[in-house]
Amino acid sequence: MRSLLTAATISLAFTLFLTPLFIRLFEKLGWGQVIRTPENAHNPNHQAKRGTPTMGGVIFIIGSIVGYLVGTLTGGAPPSISGLLVIWMMVGLGAVGFIDDYLKVRQQRSLGLSGWRKVVGQVLVAVPFGIVALNFPNRVAQTPASPYISFFRDIPMLSFLALGAIIGSIAYLVWISFLSVAWSNATNLTDGLDGLATGAGIFTISAYSLVTFWQFQQRCTSEALVAAYQAACYDTRDPMDLTIIAASFVGALVGFLWWNAPKAKIFMGDVGSMAIGGVIVAMAVLSRTEILSAIIAGVFIIGPGSVILQRVYFKATGGKRLFLMSPFHHHLEMRGWPEITIVVRMWIIAGMLAVTGVGLFYVEWLASL
């Protein structure tokens, strides 16, 4: 518990007090937000945001790592392979976003990496994660991830290895790559208004910290569990360490939100939004709750879902539009909703979905007793 509180406190203090220094540094480096020209803009009012320092995701990535390392080391337990895998996905997908951001700033264009290049980068991060996650068993043969599709826990009938060692391994890596690409792009599309993705990320990752903390309390290796509870225990390899890195990430986001809330002094950029996606997919895979993540992190599905619906409807109707703009939050802007109203209501939706996911997780545990 000391590691948990220390990690969250250190990461919170890091981003809360050091972000102004990073803002001045980014201004000197010329890392200002590039906004689409008025002819192509989602909303002409966004032109006022041009030049605001961006790539702020670098700040909470560093803050999360610092908080996690200090928390684990002061708690007397070294970082686990599971915690390091979360950091790998956070940093790796954040790096893809950083390249995208840097190209935008350097070229002064709103387009950085092409879609396929971005996907290739995301897959190059996801594949090593998937490989390592199936190795490094602990003393009771638990690995960070498993070759199963999971909901509240592994689904026995949905094993990739049932397809054979080679085909199953390939299918497993395709699954991990799909999750990584889907979640990192989903969080990226959601990051369109001041504080929207940051606040939603706080609710989502906080929910995952509760899930993994409960798994720690009900872990299969715990001698405190009586026989009656064994059917409901969890095979998560390092649940407490996952809780610590999640708490550290939430602390960093909370501190960053102080400066990112409307009107934002700094934007997280693609480096930040994709890092949030990386943490979501890593927590989902390592806690064996991949399908449940669609509920816990459901707020991040609204944006890409609206984009898909817009394109399908456009093609099906020969050019008609379902929304005034997509993603959906830009549609609400065009309907005249104030930015702060959209952001706060999306936070409320994020909170309700996160609570619903955690509630379903707990109900499943009760049903397993």
Summarize the structure.
The chain contains 12 helices and 2 strands, in the order H-H-H-H-E-E-H-H-H-H-H-H-H-H.
Structural summary, described in words:
GO terms for molecular function: metal ion binding; phospho-N-acetylmuramoyl-pentapeptide-transferase activity; UDP-N-acetylmuramoyl-L-alanyl-D-glutamyl-meso-2,6-diaminopimelyl-D-alanyl-D-alanine:undecaprenyl-phosphate transferase activity. Pathway: Cell wall biogenesis; peptidoglycan biosynthesis. Belongs to the glycosyltransferase 4 family. MraY subfamily. Its cofactor is Mg(2+). The chain crosses the membrane at residues 6-26, 55-75, 81-99, 119-137, 157-183, 195-216, 242-259, 266-285, 291-314, 342-363. With 369 residues, this protein is mainly α. It has one domain. The protein is built from twelve helices and two strands, in the order H-H-H-H-E-E-H-H-H-H-H-H-H-H. The protein has a two-stranded antiparallel sheet with strand order 1-2. A hairpin with a 3-residue loop joins strand 1 and strand 2. Helix 6 (196-217) runs antiparallel to helix 7. The radius of gyration is 20 Å and the shape is globular. Mean pLDDT is 91; it is low at 37-42.
